[in-house]
Amino acid sequence: MTSSAAPLTYDQAGVNYDLIDPLKITAQRAAAATASHLAGHGFSEVKASRGESAYVVDVGPFYIASIVECLGTKTLVADEMATLTGKSYFAGIAQDTIAMAVNDLITVGATPLVVQAYWAAGGSDWFGDAQRAQALVAGWKAACDTCQVAWGGGETPALAGIVEDGRIDLAASCTGLINPKERLSVGDQLGPGDAIVLLASSGIHANGLSLARKLAERLPQGYLTEIEPGLTYGEALLAPTALYSPVTEALWKAGIAPHYCANITGHGWRKLLRHPSALTYRIHTVPPKTAVLAFIQQQAGQDDREAYSTLNMGAGFAIFVKAEDAERTAQISRDCGIAAWVAGTVEAGEKQLLIEPLGVRFSEDDLHLR
Amino acid sequence: MTSSAAPLTYDQAGVNYDLIDPLKITAQRAAAATASHLAGHGFSEVKASRGESAYVVDVGPFYIASIVECLGTKTLVADEMATLTGKSYFAGIAQDTIAMAVNDLITVGATPLVVQAYWAAGGSDWFGDAQRAQALVAGWKAACDTCQVAWGGGETPALAGIVEDGRIDLAASCTGLINPKERLSVGDQLGPGDAIVLLASSGIHANGLSLARKLAERLPQGYLTEIEPGLTYGEALLAPTALYSPVTEALWKAGIAPHYCANITGHGWRKLLRHPSALTYRIHTVPPKTAVLAFIQQQAGQDDREAYSTLNMGAGFAIFVKAEDAERTAQISRDCGIAAWVAGTVEAGEKQLLIEPLGVRFSEDDLHLR
């Protein structure tokens, strides 16, 4: 195992949020101004869902939530590993793509109902590799089965000149219902005394891949570097993203309605600060890092503050519940096959996240999503 | 104006449906098998919507329709024209993208409620061109205003290595309601005696662009070729796609419930054969070709059969209504600012489309979408 010469930051890995974010803010303002159109149809938006992971509309008997989410660049790892090993990793990639949409949709309390596939290839010949294409279909269906959603249809355009030759741009849209309406969890009940339950990630999921890929270039054996006996870096990166909707559905059946949820994706644990309320989030128990995340942190020379501000570091989803529901929430997640920890508490105080075992603090200034 | 040496087919323009379609069929089968998951939530799919332009779920008080749609390669024309003229065409491109989703969603009788933006750039710097990015935002909002939909949010990923540098992959997802449920138009009432009303297109819309771009390469002045005085080929191609949801909403308010609708996109007028029923569609009135479509047909050396099998040829949307509603349907469209023609009739008989004024016939074998 090689140790790296210089630290590697996310900016160096080619993602510049300073250029994306001003556009995002302009777009968010324009988008907010369109909400009034819903009144013409007899409906209204749930304003608190603006800036949340999914957009929610009140249609009377229930709320409708919808979303579109991009996989990102994880397919580049799958493509490279396919060349190195001859295997297809697109079943897992399909799960990753659906997870991006479903895990966001459920944060607002929605039951995902319909997923649409967006598979934009660099050319028609992408679909000519039958093994890869069939793996994508099979993995997509399996993830729908796990999440109990209907796969409604989708798009399979060939976009030569826009998508690079031999590559595919994958995304998923998802529509769901918040039903009954008490399931809505946009944070209005979030407050001091709530517990923070963290659900295990399966690895890097689909965020931080630009960094992970840069790192592979530095390793003499690249993706085939063993990060533990029998497990290569590439295989570990390609562990499919955990699907959390079975947990949120099981919670509801058990009578637990989360006050808030955060899908820990881009911006890592800073996502725990997502809700606009001024509250202090104190973490007393830090879940174990998965092997691949520990490896990335070490190889990139990241301190804990940087690692936890970028990667999920072993916790893929956070559920904020009444303190008395915390242990049961964690147990229900475990019963669904996903490790979970009662990891912290919500307190009155300035907006900050304190990861006490690591001595790391993030404040409001560290996360601007709205 | 140059006349071309050899005819240009769609296959030569780089889109090979033979490679895409087998995968599509496998995916459609896998997708159909997931419908049973809806029962676990107390809902069910509208089976007739499988293979239609939008997927429909019965959630009790109304139906929910959802969709994701890709713009395609029209941005490549916008990029090239921006280089040639210094203007930004991305406001129109935004309308095109929303039109792809909205015009499909309304075919099943849905009122579009929420649009999500999918803007996947080749790198963060795409968003650094403020003029272009602001045009995209402004055009997106304006199209939402026209369609009276709420812009819920979206994704603006930077996908270096997947999307080509300097390019953007645009798509939109849309969710709507069919409310009241009588508005459902998946063709179960389509039958002999119905009239076919055709709504004018604004130009090429966003289908056939691969062919249109190939053609530009052949023209000595390329996109700056004048197709009529003061109108360049490039500008004409970039006329934004008509938005038809104001028409379908106005129809409902006037008490007209279409029996079926077809969005005339890829496969051109063959889309009139979309519904699986064995019916004959006889066209007696052919709308005027827009200038740009006439130019493409002439330059590509296409006969009518080929042109009408690929391009919209002046008709962007077809509405199948009771004969007695036909004239009023056309008038309501005109009142919305969109020219319309009572163009034909539905008859008992083998599945075929007869474009009588042109002597063109398409049969079931000419269109395989399911």
Describe the structure.
Two copies of one chain form a homodimer. Chain A has 370 residues and is an alpha+beta fold. Chain A has two domains: 41-183, 60s Ribosomal Protein L30, Chain: A, CATH 3.30.1330.10; 195-366, Alpha-Beta Complex (Phosphoribosyl-aminoimidazole Synthetase, Chain A, domain 2). In chain A, 30% of the residues lie in helices and 23% in strands. Chain A is built from ten helices and 15 strands. Chain A has helices spanning 17-32, 74-85, 90-105, 130-147, 209-218, 233-237, 245-253, 291-299, 304-310, 326-335; strands spanning 44-45, 55-58, 63-70, 111-121, 150-155, 168-178, 195-200, 226-228, 231-232, 260-263, 279-283, 315-321, 340-348, 352-355, 360-363. In chain A, the strands form three sheets. A seven-stranded mixed sheet of chain A has the order 10-12-7-13-11-14-15. Chain A has a six-stranded mixed sheet with strand order 1-2-3-6-4-5, covered by helices on one side. Chain A has a two-stranded antiparallel ribbon with strand order 8-9. In chain A, β4, α4 and β5 (150-155) form a beta-alpha-beta unit. In chain A, α3 (90-105) runs parallel beside α4 (130-147). The termini of chain A are far apart. Residues 1-5 of chain A have low confidence and may be disordered. At the A-B interface, α1, β3, β4, α4 and β5 of A face α1, β3, β4, α4 and β5 of B.
What is the fold's blueprint, element by element?
2 copies of one chain form a homodimer.
Chain A: H1 17-32, E1 44-45, E2 55-58, E3 63-70, H2 74-85, H3 90-105, E4 111-121, H4 130-147, E5 150-155, E6 168-178, E7 195-200, H5 209-218, E8 226-228, E9 231-232, H6 233-237, H7 245-253, E10 260-263, E11 279-283, H8 291-299, H9 304-310, E12 315-321, H10 326-335, E13 340-348, E14 352-355, E15 360-363
Helix pairs in contact in A: 3-4
